[in-house]
Amino acid sequence: MSDRTLAVAFISPALLLLLAMSVFPLLWALYLSFTDYSATRGGPAHFVWFENYTAILASAQVHLRALTTLIYVVGAVTLQTVLGFAIAYLISRRTRGRGVLTTLFLVPMMLSPVVVGLFWRFMLDAQFGVINSMLGSLGLGQVEWLTRQRTALISLIVVDTWQWTPFIMLIALAGLTAVPKYLYEAASIDRASEWFKFRTITLPLVWPLLLIAVLFRAIEAFRLFDLVYILTNGGPGVSTETLSFHVYKVGFLGFNTGTASAYGILMVLIVIVLTQLYLRYLNKLKED
Amino acid sequence: MRLATAAMLVATTMAACGQDDGAQSSAPKAPATIPELTKDPLTLKFIWFDWPPAHALEDFANAEYAKERPNVTVKVNTVPNANWHDAMFTQFAAHKTDFDIAVLDSQHIGEAVTNGNILDITDFVKKNIDVKAYNPYLLAAYGQYPQAETGKRDENASLYGLPLLGDTWTMIYRKDLIGDKPPQTWDEMISVAEKCQTDNPGVSGLAFHQANGSDAAAVTYNTVNGVYGGNLWDAKTRKIDGVLNDAAGQEAMDVLVNKMKPLTAKGSGNWFIDEVNAAVAQGKACIAFNWIAASGGLLDPKQSTLGTTREQILDKLGFAPLPSQKTNLVPLGGMGMHVSAYSSEANQAEALNFMKWFEQADIQKKWAAAGGVPARTDALESPEFLNAGPFNKVYADSVPRMRDMWNVPEYARLVDIENTNVNAALNGAKNPKDALDDIAKQQQGVLDSGNRKGGGGL
């Protein structure tokens, strides 16, 4: 057996699996997005060309969900980045117990989002939740965390931050430990202040890595579904209904498969375009 | 570019091959006579949502049906209530189900029938079921399509299911706080709840469903709409806008949001069945509304702080039919049994045999004694049922007062629109009048789209 045949034999199973499980569904979804197909109503799929796409782009409901998603992504990722970097910075300055601390901080990230959602649903319950109980003991009033428009979205951001700050922390920690020590030593000799060292050495060197972490988290946050489903079910009303949650409703309540496919494709396109712009910025940063 | 074009062509060809021919647009017919049953071991599978009646059904069927069919095991697969519709209809969409009998809500029938997902059992019913034994509205609600909006069963309409569990809301009231006599009118009920809340700090006047999942908030609004003389739609003209949000509808929304909501516990805007039961069991509500079939746990001392025995709890809790106001309508709950069109022939035959067995008068009485809520009139009036639970008489008295929702293929989208908007109004995210107008407008849009595929559903 030649090297080439052997290579093909080894690669083929994985390639076929990838084609069957990822590429084909994506292409099929792309095809369905141009049709009026409904998974339950059956019947042949008729081409409606860009009708699904125009309906989605013109829909006020979609615009509202896009705004909700944007607020959520910006809020959650910003908070996670600030907290994650701050924790990583503090941990990196410790020499003892760093490993234990890092492991402890990583625990929320290891949990399933459904478990996290249910856990926080009980924690945030207005009547019986621990959070309100603590607020009550401090003499503060009850807060309707999950059933008021503003607090519901804030609750989602807080819960997501609780779970995913460790991810940013981990990457920031990797960046911080990779900064060459001699730079700090040279700065110390020059009697540079801590703030100066942070501003001119630490931040510029860790920043590109941090931006990659932000990219990963932003893509993840853009696809948010599970926490919404468990914590608020999109409510009150539709005020925490994200784009992903809305696609689920279009796909599984009305079984408008064609529309849901177009919606999904549009979301993928948006992520690809924004990621490309972001990567260009990253490359530019690298070159500079 | 060439690669993309080629990929698109491949996808188009494969997808086109994958489409069915659209021939199955109506439900296939079940045989009038039950085919020969297998003697081999067989598991008859149901799908329902996770609540006490589902577990009661599995225990009851395995204990009783096994006497007649020892080779058959009954398995009731359960999913969370919020996933119930999706769990059934995604399998229907795949034309392959891991269940033989779908327990469908009355409103799901339209979608299942028009998609050809369940068997037309009209001929089977004619030959095997005594239809005169039922309240005609119940038989129509759980099995007939198109639905009988008048409340009278259309003898000529097709049947697709038979009743499994009847249900409606009961008013649960604290006898020790508001007295033995339940309020008779809705206005009186609000006033009694208000006084009770004022007199008992820490106890809320009312507890009811407000969540935006399943049909929680929608049923609450529909109930208030009904008692204040409103209508959900004009079924003949398929008109919702202008009907739902007429003066009666506006008054109902005003009562719900401005008079009832302030009497509920803070943060109860996402409450459904379990949360309302928890509030009652923990002595946190003066008056509550819940589905009868889900109320059994309230009498369990292990789950209640109201007493250490069932009798002590019953000294404090009373169950009554809903108060009336301009009308005496109550919501129709419960579900029917429907045979999956994609089940194997042997399992479909077994499912039909089970349904015939289950609908017999003596079995319905045994089902009532086991915690079920029967639909046969003789079982409803039997001592076995009336003595099985303090709320069973409430159900028997409520049967002539029932009103269902719209039993149309677009149900899932209609109920989502209503749920989210009522939930928004109840939680201060939307002005009540705007919410009602939005429901009417958006639901009308769904109906007017005529179940059109593509470009919709947003």
From TrEMBL, chain A:
Keyword check for Transport: yes
Annotated ranges, domain ABC transmembrane type-1:
66-278
Keyword list, A-Z: Membrane, Transmembrane, Transmembrane helix, Transport
* Compartments in which it is found: Cell membrane; Membrane
Its predominant location is: membrane
Q: Which Pfam families match?
A: BPD_transp_1
User: What InterPro entries does this protein's entry cite?
Assistant: MalF_N, MetI-like, MetI-like_sf, Sugar_ABC_transporter
The membrane topology of this protein is:
Multi-pass membrane protein
User: Which PANTHER family did the record assign?
Assistant: GLUCOSE IMPORT SYSTEM PERMEASE PROTEIN GLCT, TREHALOSE TRANSPORT SYSTEM PERMEASE PROTEIN SUGA
Question: Which family would the database say this protein is a member of?
Answer: Belongs to the binding-protein-dependent transport system permease family.
Q: What is this protein called?
A: Sugar ABC transporter permease
| Taxonomic path | Bacteria, Bacillati, Actinomycetota, Actinomycetes, Streptosporangiales
TrEMBL record, chain B:
* SUPFAM superfamilies reported in the protein's UniProt record: Periplasmic binding protein-like II
Against Pfam families, the record matches this protein to:
SBP_bac_1 (PF01547)
Q: Which InterPro entries match?
A: Bact_solute-bd_prot1 (IPR050490), SBP (IPR006059)
Q: Which UniProt keywords apply?
A: Signal, Transport
The family assignment reads:
Belongs to the bacterial solute-binding protein 1 family.
Q: What is this protein called?
A: Extracellular solute-binding protein
Query: Which species does the entry assign this protein to?
Result: Microbispora maris
